[in-house]
Amino acid sequence: MSASPRRRWRTILTAAAAAAVVATGLTACGSGSGGSADAVRLGYFPNLTHASAIIGVQEGLFQKELGAAKLTTQSFNAGPAEIEALFSGAIDIGYIGPSPTVNAYVKSKGQALKVISGSASGGVELVVKPSITKAADLRGKKIATPQLGNTQDVALRYWLKQQGFTTTKDGGGDVHITPQDNAVTVDAFGTGAIDGAWVPEPTASTLVKAGGKVLVDERDLWPGRKFVITNIIVRTDFLQKHPDLVKAVLAGQVAANQLIASNPAKAQADVVTALGKLTGKKPNAALIAEAWKTIDFTNDPLASTLVTGANHAVDVGLLEKPNLKGLYDLTILNQVLTAAHQTTIPEPST
C-alpha cells in the first residue's frame, strides 16, 4: 500500500476523533452541541436495511411521538459519512451499521455516542458476475463496497481473508476492493467496470436483476443467520440533555417495526415510495418484495454480533482492539417496549 492512502485514512480518523470531542462537549460548545429542545435531526440510509427509519418518516410515526418538536432528516450512502455528521453536530440520532458505530466509539474514547436500539438484521449479499462460481474465481477481480471501513467493507475483507486472499485499503492485493456509492456500483456492474459487490438491499437485488448472482448471503456466515446490520445511535450529549426526544424517536422506531410485522405489504409500499423520493428513481415493487425476505426487523441490537464484527475489523487491520465498555444504553428503549407491552432486552455486558 502506498503512503498517501494510509495518510488519508489516518487523517480522516484523526479528524473524526477531534470532531467527536467537540460534539460531546469536552471542549467549548459549538453551534450544534447539545442540539435543540424543540427539534430532532435524524440520519439514515436509502436502503431496505434502514426500512424502520424510512417507514417511521413516511408514516409520520416519529413526528407523531415528537409532537411539537420538529423532525428533520438527512440520508447517507454509508456509515463513515453519517458519523462525520454526528460528530459535527449536524444530526442527533442515526440509523447506522455496526462497524462505523464501533470506529466512532473507539476514536472518541467512548464519549461521542451510545447505541440505544437495534433496527435490522441481514439483508446483505455478495453479488457477482455469472462467470464467478466459487471464491477462488475472485482472484484479480474488482469488488465494490459502499465505503472504506463501513460494515460491508469490513465483512468483505474479513471473508476474503478467510478464503486466503489479501486486500489493501487502496484497492491492491489479490482481490481489488473499490469503495463507491451504491448508485455508482449499479452502473459500474452494468458496464463491467466491477465484477461484483458486497452490498445491502435493495442494491444487491438490483445487481441480481442486472444479471448478477448471489455468491454469498451474509446470513449464512452467522450463527442462527442473525447479525446486526442496523442499530440506532445518539450523540451522548443529546441523550443527556433531551431524553424525552430520544424516547419519542424510539417510540416511533418500535411503532415502525410493529407496522412492518403486522402489515408488510403496507411497509413495502412505503419503502418503494420513499426510496423513489430519496434516490430519484422509484424501485421495482417486486424487487423490494423479494429483497424483503432477507431482512429481519428487530429492536434487539444483537450486541454480541457487533462485538464479533469489531473483532473482524481488527483482524483485517481497520481497527485496533476496541474497548466497548459503556457502548450500549437500552434504558429508554426498554421503557418504550414496556409501554408497548413488548419483551424488554437485557442490557449488553460489553
Features:
D-Maltodextrin-Binding Protein, domain 2; 14 helices; five-stranded mixed beta sheet; six-stranded mixed beta sheet; 2 domains; alpha/beta; 350 residues; 17% strand; single chain
Write the layout of secondary structure elements.
Layout: H1 3-23, E1 39-44, H2 51-58, H3 61-66, E2 70-75, H4 79-88, E3 93-96, H5 98-107, E4 113-122, E5 124-128, E6 142-145, H6 151-162, E7 176-179, H7 182-191, E8 196-200, H8 203-209, E9 213-217, E10 228-235, H9 236-241, H10 243-262, H11 264-279, H12 285-292, E11 295-297, H13 303-315, H14 331-339
Parallel strand pairs: 1-2, 1-3, 6-7, 6-8
Antiparallel strand pairs: 3-10, 4-10, 4-11, 5-8, 5-9
Helix pairs in contact: 1-4, 2-10, 2-11, 6-13, 8-12, 10-11, 10-14, 11-12
Number of spatially distinct domains: 2
Query: Which class best fits the helix and strand makeup?
Result: alpha/beta
Shape summary: globular
| Proportion of residues in extended strands | 15-25%
Q: Remind me, CATH topology of the largest domain?
A: D-Maltodextrin-Binding Protein, domain 2
Query: What value does the Rg take, in angstroms?
Result: 19 Å
Mean pLDDT: 90
CATH architecture of the largest domain, by name, is 3-Layer(aba) Sandwich
Percent in helix: 40-55%
Order of helices and strands: HEHHEHEHEEEHEHEHEEHHHHEHH
Please report the number of helical segments: 14
What is the CATH C level class of the largest domain, in words?
Answer: Alpha Beta
CATH H level, superfamily name of the largest domain: Periplasmic binding protein-like II
Number of strands: 11
Largest sheet: 6 strands, mixed
| Main β-sheet, spatial strand arrangement | 2-1-3-10-4-11
